[in-house]
Specification:
Layout lengths: L13 H10 E10 L2 E8 L5 E8 L5 H16 L8 E6 L3 E7 L1 E4 H7 L6 H20 L2 E2 L8 E4 L4 E3 L6 E2 L7 E2 L12 H4 L3 E2 L2 H16 L9 H10 L10 H10 L10 H4 L3 H4 L4 H17 L1
Length: about 300
């Protein structure tokens, strides 16, 4: 049994300590970064296990605090099995507490545990879940803006869920492209139109999803370099290197997502009926069929 953490160890001021102690028992710290600390916690009354993010206001600019509040206002409106669920959100004079459903790990951690890459059928299963959550957001006019492996969590129910909507942007009601005023997101996953500071739509998220799925299958992102300038050049200009043995349907699907020209990039009506997503083939079965065709052609 995990021994509860003394609230004083969390470095909270008296008011925050009292509010937190009344509601939750801290079980263990599961994450820490510039944003603050994340704890696995249990609700005192219901016994529900949650993830609690604690953010100090003391060293934050007002605009940073307001960004967290905007994200919470957005999460309060969302209800989908493939988008992280906000349990509750509260503030004291010194701290912000964001309570989310508890998840096992993110996809980057899962990928490492699986040896660095996944088989086609698992990539397909994950793709279907991620697309379901993304479609929900896009229907509400929300562009996620930071699609990447660490922002996709595996829930306690086993479902993949998008999280971290701090950079999310609300599309215009008429659906017209938004102009990029400042780069938002993670460069390795950014769509060309974002990097070039052009106008963009929800299709920027679809490019980023293509990068995520490529990474899940290949084990690395399509474009890698230590220089931001070189990375931008590669994303804008260089050809993607495809593994020789990548299944044809998966490659066709990823090519649709990774079109540099947004007008040529696959859209939702095409995604719903794409052969890769509808297929029940496994990678082993395709390799078996390929071997059979090869041996048959040798006999003739």
């Amino acid at each position: 049994m995990v021994k509860p953490i003394d609230i004083k160890q969390a470095g909270l001021f008296s008011e925050s300590s009292r509010v937190l102690f009344e509601r939750y028992i801290l079980l263990q710290m599961i994450g820490e970064g510039q944003y603050g600390k994340v704890y696995k916690a249990m609700h005192r009354r219901t016994g529900v296990i949650v993830a609690m993010k604690m953010i100090s206001k003391l060293s934050r600019k007002k605009v940073e605090i307001e960004t967290y509040r905007e994200e919470m206002r957005l999460l309060q409106q969302l209800d989908h099995p493939h988008v992280i669920q906000l349990v509750e959100y509260f503030e004291t004079a010194t701290d912000i507490f964001i309570v989310l459903e508890y998840c096992k790990c993110d996809l980057s951690v899962y990928l490492k545990r699986k040896g660095g890459f996944l088989k086609m059928e698992e990539v397909r299963d994950i793709a279907l879940q991620l697309l379901s959550g993304l479609r929900y957001l896009h229907r509400l006019g929300v562009v996620h803006h930071d699609i990447k492996l660490p922002n996709a969590l595996i829930g306690a129910d086993g479902k993949i869920k998008w999280c971290d909507l701090g950079l999310a942007t609300q599309m215009t009601q008429d659906g017209k492209p938004i102009f990029v005023h400042a780069l938002k997101g993670t460069p390795l996953y950014m769509a060309p139109e974002i990097l070039s500071k052009s106008r963009y739509t929800y299709k920027a998220d679809l490019w980023s999803l293509g990068v995520v799925l490529y990474e899940l299958y290949v084990g690395k992102t399509p474009f890698r370099t230590s220089s931001i300038a070189e990375l931008k050049h590669n994303i804008m200009m260089e050809n993607i290197i495809w593994p020789k043995d990548i299944p044809a349907q998966l490659k066709l699907f990823l090519e649709g997502l990774l079109q540099r020209d947004p007008s040529r990039r696959i859209h939702w009506s095409q995604l719903r009926c794409h052969p890769f997503l509808l297929s029940t083939d496994t990678e082993d079965s395709l390799k078996g069929a390929s071997s059979l065709r090869s041996s048959t052609s040798t006999l003739h």
